[in-house]
Amino acid sequence: MKKLSIECLQRLEPIRGLSTARLAELVQCCHLECVPAGGDPLRREGDALRFVYLLAGELKIVLPDGTIKVIVGSCEQACWPLGYKTPPPLASKAITDVEMLRLDFDLLDIMITWDELATVAERKAGDRDEPPPWSTMTAAFSVRSLVSGALARLPPAHIHELLEAFERLTVHAGEYVIREGEPGDYYYLVESGRCSVLRQLGGSEVGIAELRAGDAFGEEALVSDAARNASVRMRTDGVLLRLAKPDFDRLLKAPLLHEVSREEAGRRIASGQARWLDVRYAAEFAQDGLPGAINIPLNEIRTAFSLLDRDIEYIAYCHSGRRSAAAAFLLARHGFRASWLRDERPGGMRCKENPQ
């Protein structure tokens, strides 16, 4: 399939308002779609949530009042999504071979929002005679992070504050960023470089994961109010963004962490909207797990994302609420719909107050 160029995107509205750095990212996510003469390029499910552009060729569209219009790919009207300057067409027919672009509306809206707020943050930093940290969007705020991670789920009102609250750190190969057993104090995003996640097993430090640009770490101890369960050491030189615990609680944890009562959870489960997720150890689950629940211990949740269904909500539970709150946050941060059960637990136990 033929790829687009940045120059092509710069002709389209409202895409052209994006920064050059964002356009370079977006062009990697898009491809031209060729439709032969006689075809109906709008006869496709799901386009209600997309912007559809005519890039080349001639297209006949039928409007709801029966009016027929012909749009040419090079004309001014074609710089806007179909249905933007006119009512949404009921049908279409390619008069010649045409080239189309379909773009997810939410993807573009998120990119525009972050791009504009980053510019505001840059200007404010410039007013204080400080280096403008957001002059370009970093790898930590890549399209992948903004669309499928916690940042995509943030209320827009929080985004500007979040950009200003992050502190940028230069780190070197071999340097420990956090150590197992220490209290949680910061949340980290990897802007550049690679890190190793290490855990003490049998008296030795064993590598269990590798983190790259765009990955985050340190949130579990902050959400559960517990000690770090692993160490993170830089494999290469790099740059990290870190967020202090009070800012993390206010700007990330609060918007993403949703609790649900036993009664409400039961309604969602019975209606098929949600599924129980037991985040305790297998032995605990075997003792008193809830009917229909799936068991994924908290320390395995990161490796199970590909096995979970993004079309269903997960309601996490444990005995105290600490592990389930951490699991629900991790799921939400990776784009899942997730809540944690605050009321009764298996065996009649009750959860403690929400850790802050």
Q: What does it look like?
A:
The structure is a single chain. This protein has 356 residues and is α+β, with helices and mostly antiparallel strands. 28% of the residues lie in helices and 26% in strands. It has ten helices and 19 strands. The chain has helices at 6-9, 20-29, 105-127, 143-148, 156-165, 219-224, 245-256, 262-270, 282-288, 322-333, and strands spanning 33-35, 50-56, 58-62, 68-72, 91-94, 98-104, 167-171, 176-178, 186-192, 195-201, 204-211, 216-217, 231-234, 238-244, 259-260, 274-278, 294-295, 313-317, 338-341. Strands 15-19-18-16-17 form a five-stranded parallel sheet. The chain has a four-stranded antiparallel sheet with strand order 7-14-9-12. A hairpin with a 5-residue loop joins β3 and β4. It is globular, with a radius of gyration of 24 Å. Residues 131-136 and 345-356 have low confidence and may be disordered.
